[in-house]
C-alpha cells in the first residue's frame, strides 16, 4: 500500500465518522453524464432554502476516494504541498473526534466510478439520504458510455452505478432519470421511495420544453441562455438559466427540482433557482468570443452521447442568415474496442446535424473526419488538425461575426494530457484575461503541460 492510498483510506474513515457524528443529510449524484451540472443545480435549489454556509457543494469534481473526504472537511486538493496535507489531516482528526464541527447541514456529493468497486467504497464513506442517478446510456444504447472501457460489459457499468441506489439509508429517496431505461429500472433495486424526472409522461417532474434563448444583434442572433419549463402534477416551474445551453442543463434543473420536491422545499423557494445557479466551467457554458462570435464551451469531458447531444444543441439554435455553426471536436477516451467506431459515428452525426464547419483533433480525429465526409459534408467543410493550439489559430483565421463555435473533447489526465480543448476556447474568447475564472484546467500543474 502506498503512502497516498493509506492517507486516502484514513481520510475516508474520518469523513465517514464525521458525517455519522454530525447527522448531516447526504445527497449523492452519479451517472455517466451530467453529474457536475446536476450537483450544481441541486446546490442552487438548496441555497434558496438554506444559507450557503449550511449546504456544501464542492466547486470542483471531487468525485473520487480523495475528493469525497475533501468535500466533508472543506479543503481544496492538497496536491504536493506538505503544509496543505498537514492542515487537512489536522482538521480531519479534530472533526472525526468532534472537537471541531463542519457546521454543514446538507452535503451534495458527486460520486464517480472509473472502475468496479468505486461506488461501493464511496457510499461506505457517505451513505446517501437521496441518491440521484443522471444518465448512463442516454437515448441510444448503441452509444458507448464514458468509462465503459474499464468494465467488461455495459451491464457491469450499470451494476456499478446502481450501487448508489442500493446504498440508500432507510427512509431515503432515489431520484432517477426516467428517460434512461437502465436508470429507470433501478427503482426496483431499493425498498425506499423512488421519484423520477425527464421528458416521459408520468414522471414526477416532467420537462415540458427547453430551448436556447437568443437575442438579435447587429451580427445575428446571440445565444444568451436556456429556457426550461417543468411540470410537477398540479405545479409548474420555469427558469431561464443565463450563460448555459443544452438539453443536459434542462435535465440537471429537473433533477434539482425533483430533489427539492423530495425534501418538501416550498415552491416559492424552488423558484429562486435562477438567482443561485452558477454555471460549471467547461460544461455547456456560453461565452463571448472574439470578432463578435459566441462560444459553446463544453470542454471538460466527452462521451459519444454527450458530444452528439451538444451537436444537436448547436444545431437547434435559431440563427440569422449568414451565421455559421462550427464544431471543434477532439478524441473521446475510455471507450475500449469501439473507440474508432464511435468517433466515426460522431463525424456522421455532425454531418446530419447540418453543422457548417467541423475541425477534428486528436488521435481519432481522422475517423471523425471520415464519418463526416461519408455522410454528406464537403471536403472544404472538414479539417483534421491534430494539435489543439493549431486548431484554435485556424478557427481564429476563418471566424466571421455571428459565428457560433462548439468545442468539446475528453480531458485526459496530467500524465496523458489529451487534446485539452479548453485551449481552443482560450484562443477564441473575447476576454482571455478571465481564462482562470471561466475555463477548466487553468491551474499551474495543467498550464505546465
Overview of the molecule:
The protein has 449 residues and is of the alpha/beta class. Helix content is 37%, strand content 20%. The protein has helices at 3-22, 35-47, 67-73, 82-97, 118-125, 154-166, 181-184, 247-262, 267-270, 273-276, 304-316, 339-352, 365-373, 388-398, 422-428, 435-438, 444-447, and strands at 25-30, 55-56, 106-110, 130-133, 173-177, 193-198, 205-217, 220-232, 235-242, 285-289, 293-297, 325-329, 357-360, 382-384, 404-408. A nine-stranded mixed beta sheet has the order 2-3-1-4-5-6-7-8-9, sandwiched between helices. A six-stranded mixed beta sheet has the order 10-11-15-12-13-14, with helices on both faces. The protein is globular.
Brief account:
The chain is α/β, with parallel strands linked by helices and 449 residues long. The chain has two domains: 3-276, 3-Layer(aba) Sandwich (UDP-N-acetylmuramoyl-L-alanine:D-glutamate ligase), CATH 3.40.1190; 285-447, Mur ligase, C-terminal domain (Protein-Tyrosine Phosphatase, Chain A, Alpha-Beta Complex).
What labels would you give this structure?
37% helix, 6-stranded mixed beta sheet, 15 strands, alpha/beta, UDP-N-acetylmuramoyl-L-alanine:D-glutamate ligase, 449 residues, Protein-Tyrosine Phosphatase, Chain A, 2 domains, single chain
